[in-house]
Amino acid sequence: MLPRICIKFKLKYVASAVLALLTLEYFGAFTHMFEADFEQTFSYPLEGDILSYVYQLRHGQRPAVEPINGYNYSYITDCQHKCREDDRMIAPRLVFIVKSAMEHFDRRVAIRKSWGWEKRFSDVKIRTVFVLGRPAVPNRRLQSLIDLEYANYRDIVQGDFVDAYFNNT
């Protein structure tokens, strides 16, 4: 009889210990032991003199560090005129680049009339550009409305890529 009680007694402790360990694991108590110190071990791929990399890219040179994400798509519409005034290049002080879904016409109008209004300050050159893709299933009616909006506002950059929620690149 005594050995049976001992086995039952030990089984309770073993089961309790296993349950306690699983609970601690579930709540992340053991994760801290395997964490790396962020300040000492984190390294962003583009660490270095970012200004020199941008300068090299702007002047057609090969940067010392390759860009992480290349852009290999063509444009359906572009806004090169946004950085021009009187046929000369300008450097806007502030550029709003707004990612927008194709069907969000009302939202783009609201942005143009509120915080994206380019003439808000007479002494500050502000530009607002909306970036769109194309639908997964071609929609001529929607595309014609986008073309009409582009002709009216001239502030849409439409890339030739599928615009989907999981493709926000």
TrEMBL record:
One of its GO terms (biological process) is protein O-linked glycosylation. Signal peptide: none annotated. GO terms for cellular component: Golgi membrane. GO terms for molecular function: hexosyltransferase activity; UDP-glycosyltransferase activity. It is found in: Golgi apparatus membrane. Pfam families: Galactosyl_T. Keywords: Glycosyltransferase, Golgi apparatus, Membrane, Signal-anchor, Transferase, Transmembrane, Transmembrane helix. Transmembrane segments: none annotated. Belongs to the glycosyltransferase 31 family. This is Hexosyltransferase.
